[in-house]
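Fold it.
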Amino acid sequence: MIGPRLLRCKTPAIAAAMVVAMAAIGIPSAAQAQQSDPREQAQDALRRGDHERARTILLEQLARKPADADLLRQLASVEAASGDLSEALTVIDRAAAIAPRDLDIRMARANILFWNGAVDDARAEADAIARIDPAYPELDQLQARLRSSPAPRAEDDGIGLQALYLSAGLSRIAFDGRDTHQTWTNQGAALGLRLGGVGTATFSVEREARARSDTRFAARFDRGLEGGSYYLEAGFVPDPDFRERWKVAAGGQAALAPNVNGSVDLRVADYATGTIVVVEPGVRVALTPRWSLDARAINLFGGDEGHRVGGSGRLAYEAQSGPTAFVSLATYPDAETDGVRQLRSAAIGLAWPVARTVTISAIGVHENREDSYRRNSLTVVFARRFGPQ
């Protein structure tokens, strides 16, 4: 049985399909559940609709066996049954990175992609399974749903609201060589849209007020791929005083090994002092199901100084439910209209889910920009997610 919370977030036809297909993710019958095995205890709790109990059992097991792909598959089924399809996709992607040839995991991922509205990606996953095992259990039912329901979650035009972000920040500035201080402020808003099975689009505006003010407008497109994702971004600042005139960026990430993802980001920005190019290769290691470590190399070309390098590191704690936190350190070449200066920074952040669809974040940062200024800032972000919960 799938809990009523999940059924409320779907149309009757899609809810029925999720009930049928959940067996492919790992919900057994009552007779199969034996209380001696924690995995079976979790499955029994899920069958009874006790999602919190099932989640707790699986997280305890994953703390001991963080690279157990089957435990992650079961956890993905819990998140899907509780209605958090975004988290379910995140978890099943981790399982697929560990065991990319496991057809149980690939079938679970295909179903979760379908429920998320990523129809093209779900179809590609189903086709890949069919090439390996055309008679795989439940595959024919998924293929039938894909043929009859090309966009199970989206509106008629395939576009839906994904998220709204609002931010506000305050900075205290001390200038090098001057016994003066300033207070800078910034405000921002962003709107995310689902584009059916194509990807997501985010439109944002951000205003920063120093002695003068600059406002940046930007648009970004994200698309998931099997085992990874990529993005494209562009933005501009009308009549800038300290920011770039325009910026274009692209990047992506993919699984390199179990619990290891690689990424690369490229951006080009034009300032009053010239055009710069920044290339940032990076790696992310999942230390445990909740802890991860990111490292990035930052390469800047241009700015009248040729090639300058820097780097950053970030340690993050990401709970399945509850607060998320991170700390980071960085030193890198930073471009503004006065040229390129080395910047050293330390940051700490905390995100707290005050409701299933609402998260409040606070980020504190200390920056020291060489021969320029020192900044202590605090930014608060409100995030509201939309869609099935």
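The two ends are 18 Å apart (CA to CA).
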